[in-house]
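Case study.
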Amino acid sequence: MKRELPLFLTAVIGLFMILSFFVPHQWVSVPADFLQVSAIIVVAFGYVLGGANVLRVNIDAIYKRIPGWPFKLVLIVGLVATLTIGAIEGPGFLNPGTRSKWIYNQLYSPMQATMFALLAFFIASAAFRAFRIRTVEAGLLAVAALLVMLGRVPVGNVVTQWLTGSLHGVIPEGLWNAIQIGSIQDWIMNVPQNAAKRAILIGAAFGVMATGLRVILGIERSYLSGED
Amino acid sequence: MPNAAKGVRERLAGLALRMGTLDRRWIFLVMGLLVLYPLLFPLALPLQITPPVRGFADAMDQLKPGSTVLMSCDYDPGAIPELVPMTRTAFRQLLSQDCKVVVTVLWNGGPGLVDSVLREVAREFPDKHYGVDYVNLGYKAGNEAVMVLMGQGVANAFPRDYRGNNTRGLPMMREVGDYSTFALLVSVSAGYPGTKEWVQQVQARFHLPMVAGVTAVSAPEYYPYLQSGQLRGLLGGMAGAAEYEKARGESGTATRGMDAQSLGHIFVALCILGGNFVQWGRRRRGA
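After joint prediction, the assembly is written out as follows.
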């Protein structure tokens, strides 16, 4: 029963939600709306559960003094301080002038922006140390990457216009435009990239449908206590 | 002559091997300088408006005064350089065209940032008032479920706005029902949940005209939707934001950032070529 009931509920609710997509009648749409709201509430409780889990795991690690425990202490202090200040300030805790807003603007926002800004440095370093052209496929990838990277920024067009400037007026206008790096970049994005992306999207959609059906029909049970 | 060519190749291979021992901190330093220099001394490289950006600007231009527009800003501070400029320009255009704007956020790290941007732009329009001309409904957990629920009524999904007001009590929201109220959906997103989910859950289901602004790294993902017409326009990363600024006759942070991005891209391209030059040198010397 412990296993059959969740499987039964999953199958019934899954099929009902599929039905609600096609049947707008209120006998279907009203319970479907209720289930949607319930899902949102469950997601919100997920945050509470996640927060409690972070506290449990990290407090345990600090207590046992495992390597790197001071970082976990910073995490706990940050979590508790932010949560407490937000709770004290109540509704409107992110309005201008509040302490929560100060934490958001002066700590959270710069730290997250910094993490992403570091990518520019690591991408350059990785490009130098790891982007090796060892096969034809890797060569094609490198050429496409260089063309798109330079074609996406204004300097790419400036360079190709300078390089092909002497041909302007000599060869047909359409051909001259086509050999500009911006046009080549557009073609790569619109034709080969788009075709590959569309194929991946269709494949992924079939995968999602198959997984959904497996869950609804009770074939896929990994969500039940880690059972396969 | 063949000996001379061989000598040149050997010298190049030696140079490649020396390059291979380069401390990566030099790469960091050069990248830092290349980003910093154009921010201090702009190069003013010319921008060209590409068709996806033209489509975005045209869809916005075609909105009639008084139209209600749904703007979903699904990002957090990591996407500030790319997505804040497009949010700012789009919101400014909507207010200047006398459109009513409903803003939502589906990323829990984004509401504070989005609110700051809205307040900053709204200050440029003293005759536009919160709750009358625009409203920020803030964050709601639930991802796709929130999108679907909004189809039954926006106020159902967001009973209170970001500032804690009763949503149904706001003058503007009295006329906002479900998705049929909106003339356009503007999705500015950095990933999941974002533009893809808005297309799949809302555009495809409720046939709401839609445009999107996304990060450069995720832009290729949306080209199929652009080609199918489900997206009427697309701003991809800082380049898209800068082109949109140009289309609007503005010169904002994206336009200024494009010079830095140009030099950064050139440097990464040189790093790829340099890295493979090192590999060639190692192969030649059997290292």
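Observations recorded in class. Chain A has a mean pLDDT of 90. Chain A touches chain B through 59 residues (CB under 8 Å). We will return to this complex in the next lecture.
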